[in-house]
């Protein structure tokens, strides 16, 4: 046993004990409670990083296999311009455009077919089926059709995000109860009024569910599509070439950026969900 | 006004109509996308072509932009039935390579997911500290770092099935954790209190109440998990120029412009996904029926 491993073990035990103690506390004050809620996962995350660093140093794992967090951080700091260019290409161009287009299209089609029960019955099973398929497989075809640049990645993202949105929106639009619809009917509300005032609000939780699923799907789709051909910029491109050149710390830097972007994106959608569906039981209970 | 529900009119007919519409649109696009190439060829050969001739040739191109359905079916037939299953040109062989990685990853992901869920449900500190990171772990695009995992594991001597299975595991454990945590927490407070009044131990409460109650949630998660296990296995084959598996077929088809090969591999993957999900679905109905749950 060398010093690093002993330290990792002690740190882990200490953090574990601290967390056990923290969750046992039941403070009355809501701010303290929230602080504990934030601190516990944070301590856990820091513990993971510390153990990682110590294991890499303790076992002297070569950095080509697994670089220590400190090395990765050093790489992030020194190559921000490359990371930023890749981020722009993959996230700002491909992911955001594709996400907006795919979700928007799924939403519009859902509203269009809402008036036809026949189409719903036909499209929903197929939509469910398609969302279970390995849609990333279409990436090579899209690259052939739309070229190597970001347009083909947008196409992949649109196809990946379309069906979850379609299926969820149709289900959400159907979720308003008969009583409420009858009430709108007795008010002589038109189809549009019923849609905007009753059925869309009732559908929001479902729509946000799709938006959350799609936020991670979009990133995955864009990055995987870059494996099939891309100009010399982009996160997927960087990951595959730097692996080939054995710059594993650069790959991990790219992963860190992707994870951060994905988490922030997800977080923003979840925040919007809290704002829009504040009345929903899962949000009111404080567990969104 | 409403007549008795019929499975044909309410379920099969709409789906068939939509599939038919997709096929019609597909053929229109085949003509539209492939026609420029056909016209080009005709112009080069100084041929005059009627529209019917153009259409006919768009359906029989060797490397079409969009292959016609019958070409894909022919390729599927050729590579599954006409080739020996051990041949490297057989799609069955490639599908089996992918399927074995999928199943291995799925099995490991299920075990890992269930173990994590049990820990999370029974320990408050685990719940508070682990759950946010389980969620955060999924924002890391594992598919994106799949190439690195494969290369790194390869350099320490692990290659073949295992790296792909690990990627599948990483993807499939998440829905199972989420579903199982919800399922293990689904028993009513009253039932938990009842177990308490019986002086049931924690393990008795678990095996007699929580575990049975979580089964519907588990199977729903399993359906999601097995589908994305397949995605993980396919993507795991993309890097390092793997030579076998459906992902390798996609990649080589993409390199050599073999569109029909890509589409055939895609349809094989789709069929595999449908088969796997329906097998889990059947197990679902079976188990729940044995447990006395009415559908």
From TrEMBL, chain A:
Q: How does it sit in the membrane?
A: Multi-pass membrane protein
- One GO CC term, this protein: plasma membrane
GO BP: transmembrane transport
Kindly list the places in or outside the cell where this protein is found, as annotated in its UniProt entry. Cell membrane
SUPFAM superfamilies recorded for this chain? MetI-like
Name the predominant localization.
Answer: membrane
User: What are the TM regions of this chain, as residue ranges?
Assistant: 33-52, 64-84, 96-114, 126-148, 154-174, 217-239, 251-272
The record's annotation in Pfam families points to: BPD_transp_1
Q: Which Gene3D superfamilies match?
A: MetI-like
Q: Which UniProt keywords apply?
A: Cell membrane, Membrane, Transmembrane, Transmembrane helix, Transport
Q: Which domain of life is it from?
A: Bacteria
Instruction: Provide the ABC transmembrane type-1 domain boundaries.
Output: 104-277
What name does UniProt use for this protein?
A: ABC transporter permease
InterPro entries named in the record? MetI-like (IPR000515), MetI-like_sf (IPR035906)
Q: Which organism is it from?
A: Rhizobium glycinendophyticum
TrEMBL record, chain B:
Q: Which domain of life is it from?
A: Bacteria
What keyword terms does UniProt attach to this protein? Cell membrane, Membrane, Transmembrane, Transmembrane helix, Transport
Chief localization: membrane
CDD domains recorded: TM_PBP2
Q: Name one Pfam family in it.
A: BPD_transp_1
Any one of the GO BP annotations: transmembrane transport
In this protein, which residues make up the domain named ABC transmembrane type-1?
95-281
GO CC, any one term: plasma membrane
Ranges in coiled-coil conformation: none
Membrane topology summary: Multi-pass membrane protein
- PROSITE patterns according to UniProt: ABC_TM1
Q: Where do the TM regions start and end?
A: 12-33, 95-121, 133-153, 165-184, 217-240, 260-281
Q: Where in the cell is it found?
A: Cell membrane
Protein family per UniProt: Belongs to the binding-protein-dependent transport system permease family.
The protein's name in its UniProt record: ABC transporter permease
Originating species? Rhizobium glycinendophyticum
């Amino acid at each position: 046993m060398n010093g690093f491993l002993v330290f990792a073990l002690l740190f882990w035990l200490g953090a574990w004990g601290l967390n056990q103690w923290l969750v046992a506390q039941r403070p009355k004050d809501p701010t303290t409670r929230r602080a504990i809620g934030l601190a516990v996962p944070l301590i856990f995350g820091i513990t993971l990083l510390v153990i990682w660093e110590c294991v890499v140093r303790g076992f002297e794992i070569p950095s080509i296999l697994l670089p220590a967090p400190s090395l990765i951080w050093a790489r992030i700091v020194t190559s921000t311009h490359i990371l930023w260019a890749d981020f722009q290409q993959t996230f700002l161009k491909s992911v955001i455009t594709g996400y907006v287009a795919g979700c928007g299209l799924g939403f519009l089609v859902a509203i269009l077919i809402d008036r036809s029960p026949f189409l719903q019955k036909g499209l929903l099973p197929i939509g469910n089926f398609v969302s279970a398929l390995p849609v990333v497989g279409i990436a090579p075809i899209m690259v052939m059709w739309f070229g190597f640049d970001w347009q083909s990645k947008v196409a992949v993202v649109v196809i990946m995000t379309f069906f979850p949105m379609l299926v969820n929106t149709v289900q959400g639009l159907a979720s308003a109860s008969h009583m409420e619809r009858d009430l709108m009917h007795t008010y002589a509300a038109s189809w549009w009024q019923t849609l905007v005032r009753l059925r869309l609000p009732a559908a929001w939780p479902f729509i946000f569910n799709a938006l959350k699923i799609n936020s991670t799907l979009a990133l995955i789709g864009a990055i995987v599509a870059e494996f099939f051909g891309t100009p010399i910029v982009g996160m997927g491109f960087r990951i595959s070439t730097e692996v080939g050149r054995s710059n594993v710390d650069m790959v991990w830097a790219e992963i860190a950026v992707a994870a951060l972007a994905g988490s922030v994106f997800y977080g923003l959608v979840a925040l919007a969900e809290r704002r829009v569906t504040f009345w929903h039981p899962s949000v009111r209970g404080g567990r969104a | 006004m409403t007549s008795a529900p019929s499975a044909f009119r309410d379920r099969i007919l709409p789906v068939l109509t939509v599939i038919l519409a997709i096929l019609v649109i597909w053929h229109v696009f085949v003509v539209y996308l492939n026609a420029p190439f056909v016209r080009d060829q005709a112009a080069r050969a100084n041929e005059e072509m009627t529209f019917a001739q153009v259409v006919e040739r768009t359906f029989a191109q060797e490397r079409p932009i969009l292959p016609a359905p019958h070409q894909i079916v022919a390729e599927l037939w050729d590579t599954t039935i006409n080739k020996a299953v051990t041949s490297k040109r057989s799609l069955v062989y490639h599908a089996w390579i992918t399927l074995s990685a999928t199943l291995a990853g799925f099995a490991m992901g299920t075990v890992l997911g269930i173990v994590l869920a049990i820990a999370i449900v029974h320990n408050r500190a685990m719940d508070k500290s682990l759950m946010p990171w389980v969620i955060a772990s999924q924002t890391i695009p594992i598919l994106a770092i799949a190439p690195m995992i494969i290369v790194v594991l390869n350099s320490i001597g692990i290659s073949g099935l295992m790296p792909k299975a690990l990627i599948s595991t990483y993807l499939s454990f998440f829905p199972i954790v989420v579903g199982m945590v919800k399922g293990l927490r689904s028993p009513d407070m009253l039932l938990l209190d009842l177990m308490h009044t019986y002086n049931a131990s924690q393990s008795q409460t678990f095996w007699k109440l929580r575990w049975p109650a979580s089964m519907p949630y588990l199977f729903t998660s399993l359906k999601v998990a097995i589908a994305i296990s397949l995605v993980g296995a396919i993507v795991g084959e993309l890097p390092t120029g793997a030579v076998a598996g459906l992902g390798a077929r996609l990649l080589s088809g993409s390199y050599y412009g073999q569109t029909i090969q890509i589409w055939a591999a895609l349809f094989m993957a789709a069929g595999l996904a449908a088969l796997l999900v329906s097998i889990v679905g059947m197990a679902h109905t079976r188990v729940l029926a044995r447990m006395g749950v009415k559908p």
